[in-house]
Specification:
4 helices; 2 domains
């Protein structure tokens, strides 16, 4: 009987070994199949990587050129920013000079001058109780006698002769605007 058990045990071992061998063969085939799939994936990834490297090599000179261009633009922008205060001051000077020479500005100044003259006319007429005939004496003093050229001695301010009798600003000599009257870099533009 002992021999039978040894025989059975050996049979079981062989059966077990053949099951294990068959299982090992299946595992080996599956591993081999997976290895082939992974090799294909690796080849595909490798070719994708080579294509990406090729594109990177093509893009690199363009990137370098754009970087150099950006550096040049940065330098130009820095130069422009440094010259901006001079440009602002020049533009402000041109704008003021153009405004002073404009018809609109001169019309407003003339209107204000005439308004002041009208106010003075009204005050004199009311205080002196003048009618149109009485006012004619003042008109004659202005036009014929040019009494405006003779100082009274109690005037509130001294004015240049050219502006005392002149209602139209366009006939006056051009204004000489001092440099510090223009907008400076420290002030805000309006």
């Amino acid at each position: 009987m002992d021999l039978y058990y040894v025989y059975r045990w050996n049979q079981m071992q062989l059966t077990q070994n053949s099951i294990d061998i068959a299982e090992l063969k299946k595992r080996a085939e599956a591993a081999e199949s997976a290895l082939k799939i992974n090799e294909k994936k690796l080849e595909s990834a490798s070719s994708d990587l080579e294509a990406a490297n090729q594109r990177l090599e093509e893009v690199e000179p363009k990137l370098k050129a754009e970087t150099e261009r950006a550096d040049g633009l940065t330098q130009e922008l820095t130069d422009l920013n440094q010259s901006l205060p001079v440009v602002k001051k020049t533009a402000a000077k041109r704008a003021v000079d153009k405004l002073l020479q404009s018809d609109w500005f001169n019309d407003i100044l003339t209107l204000r001058h005439n308004g002041g003259w009208c106010a003075a006319h009204r005050v004199v007429c009311h205080v002196k109780k003048l009618d149109e005939d009485g006012w004619q004496e003042f008109e004659d003093g202005y036009e014929e006698k040019e009494l405006y050229k003779v100082a009274t001695g109690f005037e509130p301010q001294e004015l240049p002769e050219a502006v005392i009798c002149n209602a139209n600003q366009r006939t006056l000599p051009p204004l000489q605007v001092p440099e510090d009257a223009y907008w400076s870099g420290d002030e805000h533009a309006v």
